[in-house]
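pasting for ref
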Amino acid sequence: MSALTYAYHAVDNHGSRCKGTATATSEAEAYRRVAAMGLIPLTIKPVTLGRARKIKLKEIAHFTSQLGVLIGARISISDGLVAIGDQEPDPRLRAVIMDVASRIESGQSLADSMDAHRTVFGSMYIETIRAAEKSGSLVKVLEYLAESLDRSQETAAQVKGALMYPACAIGAMTVGVTFLVGYIVPKFAAMYESRGVELPLITQYLQHLGLSVRNFWWLYLMVIVAAVFGIRAMWKTPAGQQRIDRFLHRIPAIKSVLVGLSVSRFARVFGISLGSGLGLIEAIELAGRASGRPLLIAEVNHMATRIRSGSQLTQALSTCTYLPSFAKRMLSAGEHSGELPQMCTLVAKHFERETSYTTKNLATIIEPILVIGIALIVLIVALAIFLPMWNMVNLVK
């Protein structure tokens, strides 16, 4: 039976209330364990694993680093997980760790055990672990994953910092423009019409838009909510993931970050798998799944099919449009020189540096576009208000 984590409230020998967690296979066993600590249990409830999706990335990175150290010390995976789980302060992550340990003890692999918590670890993490288990390089891969998660956290912080100013500016502009279009423009338009001034097309358009926002704001809100839920539902299907991924790759700034991250992951796992003795086809398929990008996964699967039919890696790479030319040239050179794993490491390091540089300068890329967009919107609203005024002055003359 799988071990679970139970949260308890109890009373000690001095009559003071206390709380904590205990790991057990049933509620009755959890009760006995709490009582064995000299406590009188009041309530015992299992920790819900579904809440574990809120676990922070830095906690996963710390767990990965600890697991790598323990396995490197030749401690069994299940014992290492139990040791980490016993010391884990977050009950949600502790419940996940203990469940993974229990699944391993029942005969499942580490990747398959973690697959039951895909919302916690993510597809890239699990597929990378799967490649490590098959290649026998789990310690090395866990070190890479810990570093990768730390970099991902740093990249996310850089992106959030770069987007903070544009987000605030766009939010303030949206509120201001909504007020102008919803209230100011219709009032000016009504005033101009009462004086016999013919409204330009731009003023008529904004007038109708403003009136529709005022009268049917609930409909606009429903459309936004429906769009959010529709996108989430689309992402749950492979075809939908490819459509969304294709759209994101059409945005230059976002595309460079996504390509850099996915290519560096692909090259790193590809090199580790090859260096550990896996075959070319299996290594490239595992690396594709570890990249986490639907478009790259689809192209890698096509490349694997070509290699099975007798093509060389260089020939298969020539049909891949996702990988940048630099990556394809380096991998082809590695195949010809017999040093493909080393070339994969060089490619991974190169794109990791490129991605770090791009995220650090993301604000510099966005700000000019934002300024132009704001200026264009302000110009449109100003023309809608002042063009009729100009016509009214000419009418008075």
